[in-house]
Sequence to fold (311 residues):
Amino acid sequence: MEILVLHPGALGDIILSLPALSLLRQHYPQAQLTIAGNHDYLNPVAIGCADRTLSLSTIPLHRLYSTEPLSEDDVRFWGTYDRIVSWTGAGGPAFKSKLVKVGAKVKVSRWRPDSSEKRHVARIFVESLYPWIPRVESISPPRIHVDPVRLDEARDWLTEREWTSGESILALHPGAGSVVKRWGIENFRSLAHRYLQQQIGKLLIVEGPAEVGLGRELVRDLTPACVLLLESAPLFLLAALLSFCRAYVGNDSGISHLAAGLGVPAVTIFGPTSPEQWVPLGERVTILRDSCLSRISPNHVWDALLGWGLC
Fold:
């Protein structure tokens, strides 16, 4: 059996779908599972969930929205799959009917919560697969596994920057896709100074592609020998480096979901976004939430780190 999953989401969205993908894999253990989405996000986090990943840009997805009949090449492509799960196309009247016509069993579902939605996004993903998979009461947190080769690469990266094995690392990610989700650079700087004053270890400052320059702004008055700056690095390297960290602090972002999925003790700061739908899932996650981010102080975050016995 060939199963195709179409996933248009960003990093955090893909991570929150991992429990659903794992259940799909468990229920169809003999199937070949292909996931099509953002290749840069899929490959580092979907290890173990998929036999193959594709970039959405390489498949004839856009023509499913058209009223024109599918070409022979398109019919041949879609017809190679016995079941298709699409987390896109729910608003297109022609979308599902075209896939059904090629002979596949099809599920087309929305997963982004609206204002009245009470379910967590991970549960929305899981329930979108009913009745193809059995109903479940509880959802296991995502589990992200890093290839040992990538861990060796991360260890080399750290060693080249004078990190010694066993030395504590606290990761700070001051960015987020939306500015209104950011706790504030001065808050992160205050937390960084407090950590370094304890002489516990090094800081890993993570800068994503959506926040170029934010990392350098944060580290400009920190002790250079104690700071590791990671600027827009490949996700494979970031995931491996986070695996070496003793703790993580970040905003409501995909990287916070990554840290939680890796099992890193994480403090995630929420402002306007509802954590009921979007909280990172993990056994070692602390959420600090206030609709006014300025009311969350560095002391609050420091206390959360102390609660984990990490500082």
About this structure: The two ends are 50 Å apart (CA to CA). The chain has a mean pLDDT of 94. The first helix runs from residue 11 to 27.
